[in-house]
Amino acid sequence: MRIVSGQFKGRRITAPKKLPVRPTTDMAKEALFNILNNQFYFDDISVLDLFAGTGNISYEFASRGTQDILCVDQDHGCIKFINDTAESFEMDIQTIKSDVFKFLEKTKQQHTIIFADPPYDFTEEAFSKIPELVFENNLLESEGLLIIEHSKHTDLSNLKQFVRSKSYGGNVFSFFENETSDEEE
After folding, report:
1. Full strand arrangement of the beta sheet holding 68-73
2. pTM of structure
3. Other beta carbons within 10 Å of 36
4. 155: which residues sit within 8 A by CB, 6+ positions away?
5. pLDDT tens, 74-124?
6. What's the CATH code of the domain at 136?
7. Angle between the N-to-C axes of helices 56-63 and 26-37, in degrees from 0 to 180, rounded to the nearest 10
8. 117: domain range?
């Protein structure tokens, strides 16, 4: 995997084979960041990377100037790899080793972008728990975005606050936003 843009553009990152991960493809990552680039100033946002795995998405945000990044993963090897890689690139990425669902139930910190890349074999119930906890606990800033990566065999369009999805090969990004009332317009 490589960083596709920003300060560290072109830098390759090689994760140990023993990590239980499936990194987002460079093509899908580049397409996702093209969408986000039109909506956010990366140096002004806060990012929460859930099921962070190798930290692939977080490195991309950091390379583009994001200073406030928190990665959550329950695998010790993943957290160690993210910490080591962030240190070698001198990126300010924070990590928490935790079950993502337990973390979402306890945290009170809001973020501009919450990115979740859970295992593709999650049940629909497990996938639906992510936006449920994010919105019930008010973890997304008012103009923020929750993005869940999943396979093309999973459909999240029936979940509350779903707004759209984009497919790239076998990868799909589903986007969720806070509900807005007519009063705000």
Report:
1. 93-97, 68-73, 46-50, 111-116, 140-151, 171-176, 162-168
2. 0.94
3. 18
4. none
5. 999 999 999 999 999 999 999 999 999 999 999 999 999 999 999 988 988
6. 3.40.50.150
7. 40
8. 110-178
